[in-house]
Description:
Elements: E1 2-6, H1 11-22, E2 26-33, H2 40-52, E3 56-61, H3 98-113, E4 117-119, H4 135-148, H5 150-153, E5 159-161, H6 169-178, H7 203-215, H8 220-227
Parallel strand pairs: 1-2, 1-4, 2-3, 4-5
Helix pairs in contact: 1-2, 1-6, 6-7
Amino acid sequence: MRAIVLLSGGLDSYTAAAIAKSQGFDLYALTVAYGQRHAREIEAARAVARRLNVERHLELAVDLRAIGGSALTSDAEVPRDRDVATATGIPSTYVPARNTIFLSLALGWAEAVGAGDIVVGVNALDYSGYPDCRPAFIRAFEALAAVATRAGVEGARFRVHTPLIDLTKADIIRRGVALGLEYGVTHSCYDPDPSGAPCGRCDSCLLRAKGFAEAGVADPLFATRQAR
């Protein structure tokens, strides 16, 4: 079985991919360089792909900086020190239609290589308010795939797997630890310093820290950096 997995280099996509691999899928990893200010995650995606022993790791450049509308593709300030447990609204780190664009690229590759499965590490609980991480979006995209592709109209079914969608960050980390994942190679920060070190204050860093604390697991990313 072949599956296209969207691989960002973060712990969510790493865990989702590892779950798919444990289920017997041959992984075709897709990483998108979209002009993100935290491009350090692309290096992390390469490291993750090696550890997962994927069949192929495809990197595509789709520069979304020209579109704008997000703190992740511009010099706009990244929110820091928010209470991620009570924050409401869609934050400025939302990238317009990003998951729609990414899943469309994954769908195209899936059709080209004869894969009926796409894996994405979206999460509807610790999701920072992003509308394209919700079950309704995933269902709508599956319906789109059925009518927007030759394979779909000829009777093939595309399924978007979201193994993390109902899990907390702590649950995700526990699942990854059980699978033997090395989270020290991942990258989560939205606004790392020039060396690639995480800021520790953006929503993504705070959600990560909260998840490791609740899971009762030390974050190996920091142990790895201290060892260096």
